[in-house]
Design goal:
Elements: H1 14-20, H2 23-26, H3 30-46, H4 52-70, H5 83-95, H6 108-144, E1 149-154, E2 157-163, H7 164-189, E3 191-192, H8 208-214, E4 219-220, H9 224-229, H10 232-258, E5 266-267, H11 286-309, H12 323-347, E6 349-350, H13 352-360, H14 366-375, H15 380-397, H16 406-412, H17 420-423, H18 426-431, H19 441-457
Parallel strand pairs: 3-4
Antiparallel strand pairs: 1-2, 5-6
Helix pairs in contact: 3-4, 3-6, 3-8, 4-5, 6-7, 6-12, 6-19, 7-10, 7-19, 10-11, 10-12, 11-12, 14-15
Bound molecules: arginine.
Arginine is lined by residues 22, 26, 82, 108-109, 112, 316, 318, 320-321, 324.
């Protein structure tokens, strides 16, 4: 059955039907479609547009359809054009003519705008819950590793010593911002478009605020044309998901590097790695590589929707049906990646002694040697030059700063005394970095306390 056969004298071409139809993918929000219809008829009856008994019959019919779809006795028939037609047609089949009153004061344009918003609202919450789980995992590793030394890098060259807790703390901040972004989006999108009709509202005395409150929106949208033509919240959500993927991809890249034969900072659990069909020795970081790879697909969806929307005149245009498949795929992809990454991280073994040994060579304490000179009255620029000479000397002898004798130090600068060794030890280098946000165990413990507090209190709605 079609919702719009009246003014047509010919059957739709079959290819046209398939090209136009969306039921193969919009059946995903059957629950939201029914939930929206129940709110709509509840409001219609309250306004005297339907009688209470008509309302009750329609709601009973809709709830029956919902229950039968959920328990699997009623399969969604893909010959219908979309989920809206499917539900309405079956309602009429089940309860008769009164079912024909469901669509009073409504268009599929405001209906689909509502369904998609309800669906996305749920997905924003679910994505947030998965991020929270990831953050708990990151925090657990941070708490156990405030004194696990490792090299910090710039340009992928060893720079200064840090700790594993400090390194992971950077990702904690990223995923925290991702959750804040989701909360912002939720707040901005949480206005109900239902009652906007096709584009110009309706002549029925609808109470849009009442429908909005039934569906737990903060209120009703303020312009009926914008209501049916707005997909900004999808673009914002795809953008937030792209940023989450970008963060996961950077983290994955680090896991891949850390897991390489050259680094060996970590060992992936067998349950989260894969082998090679030809090389028996291999244990590959496929999960991290796939997360990195799928990031491109998610960015593509964002570009795709931005491009779809850029030339659309107001109000609804069928182009907008293209928002669904790519959004659904992006949500599935990103949620899957967060979950897989969390599992991989939770089971990964950090090889603390390898990381510490790596921090000890590569002159990560060169800045601290310069700071030592500064503390003994040498201007920083001169100190930088002196330590540069020390490094050159060490490279030539294939030793580290810690291996030089005091005589060798004094030959380059008489300012050095025996306490230089303590001053440039890995432990001192890290422990002296006490400023807010720095890697010393003391500063990190304070940061962890604040992150913990955040995790306990923050959510989508607060
Ligand atoms: N399947 C359509 C979509 O996803 C539903 C809205 C149809 N509206 C219309 N005027 N044809 O956008």
């Amino acid at each position: 059955m079609k919702l719009w056969g009246g003014r047509f004298t010919k059957e739709t071409n079959q290819l046209v039907h398939h090209f136009n139809a969306s039921i193969s993918f919009d059946q995903r929000f059957y629950k939201q479609d029914i939930e929206g219809s129940i709110a709509h008829v509840t409001m219609l009856a309250r306004q005297g547009i339907l009688t209470d008994s008509e309302r009750d019959e329609i709601i009973t019919g809709l709830k029956g359809i919902l229950a039968d779809i959920e328990n699997g006795t009623f399969v969604i028939d893909e010959t219908y054009e979309d989920i809206h037609s499917f539900v309405e047609a079956h309602l009429i089949e089940r309860i008769g003519d009164v079912g024909k009153k469901l669509h009073t004061g409504r268009s599929r344009n405001d209906q689909v705008a509502l369904d998609m918003k309800l669906y996305i609202r749920d997905e924003v919450r679910e994505t947030d819950a998965l991020l929270k789980e990831l953050l708990s995992t990151v925090l657990r590793i941070m708490e156990a590793n405030t004194e696990t030394f490792m090299p910090g890098f710039t340009h992928l060259q060893k720079a200064q010593p840090i700790t594993l807790a400090h390194h992971l703390g950077a990702y904690f901040e990223m995923f925290k911002r991702d959750r804040q972004r989701l909360a912002d989006i939720y707040k901005r999108m949480n206005l109900c478009p239902l009652g906007s009709g096709a584009l110009a509202g309706t002549t029925y005395p609808l109470d849009r605020e009442y429908t909005a409150s039934l569906l737990h929106f903060d209120g009703a949208t303020l312009n009926s044309m914008d209501s049916v033509a707005d997909r900004d919240y999808l673009i914002e959500f795809l953008s937030a998901l792209s940023t989450i993927m970008m963060h996961l991809s950077r983290f994955s890249e680090e896991v891949i590097i850390w897991n390489s034969n050259e680094y060996q900072f970590v060992e992936l659990d067998d349950s989260y790695s894969t082998g090679s069909s030809i090389m028996p020795q291999k244990k590959n970081p496929d999960i991290a590589e796939l997360v990195r790879g799928k990031t491109g697909r998610v960015y593509g969806a964002l570009m795709s929707l931005l491009t779809t929307m850029k030339g659309l005149p107001l109000a609804y245009n069928k182009d907008m049906q293209e928002d669904k498949e790519l959004t659904f795929d992006t949500i599935d992809t990103t949620k899957g990646c967060i979950q897989l990454f969390t599992g991989m991280l939770a089971t990964m073994r950090f090889r603390n002694s390898v990381m510490e040994a790596s921090a000890k060579n590569g002159f990560t304490n060169a800045t601290d040697a310069a700071d030592y000179l500064v503390n003994h009255g040498v201007p920083f620029r001169d100190a930088h030059g002196i330590v540069g000479q020390l490094v050159l000397y060490c490279i030539d002898k294939n030793i580290s700063l810690d291996d030089m004798t005091l005589e060798e130090y004094k030959a380059i600068s008489p300012v050095f005394e025996a306490d230089i060794y303590e001053a440039i030890s890995l432990k001192t280098c890290v422990e002296k970095r006490l400023t807010k946000g720095a890697p010393s165990p003391a500063a990190m413990k304070e940061a962890i306390r604040l992150e913990k507090e955040y995790l306990e209190t923050a959510g989508i709605l607060n």
